[in-house]
Design brief:
The chain is globular and about 35 Å long. The model has no long low-confidence stretch (mean pLDDT 94). It has a single domain, classed as STAS domain (Transcription Regulator spoIIAA), CATH 3.30.750.24. By secondary structure, it is an alpha/beta fold. Helix 1 packs parallel to helix 2. The two termini are 20 Å apart.
Length: 104
């Protein structure tokens, strides 16, 4: 999995591609931790258009990100989910927890 981070104004975007599973837990945490700690960042977007697989550990990582973000009053959005990823998020009722939207 490839993970990159971009910050524009007060919005940070974590872009991922490939398999989102337990193998990338350290890399994912290393990507979001500085964003949680950055007072200028008010929203974190997780760009998922190029994620082709996620498992229950990925769902747990997203939940942990959400809990940490809420603890410092930041919002989380999941962007551009499709296919199997959308189905897994739907079954897990993640739309009740996250703002899931299509955006550029």
């Amino acid at each position: 999995m490839a993970i990159s981070v971009q910050i524009r104004d007060n919005v940070a975007r974590i872009s991922m591609s490939g398999r989102f599973d337990f193998q990338v837990h350290r890399e994912f945490k290393e990507a979001y931790t500085p964003l949680i700690d950055n007072a200028a960042v008010r929203e974190i977007e997780v760009e998922m258009s190029r994620v082709d697989y996620l498992d229950s550990s990925a769902l747990g990582m997203l939940m942990l990100l959400n809990e940490r973000a809420k603890g410092v009053s930041k919002s989380i959005s999941l962007l551009n989910t499709s296919g199997v990823v959308s189905q897994v998020l739907e079954v897990a009722n993640f739309s009740r927890i996250f703002n899931i939207r299509n955006a550029s």
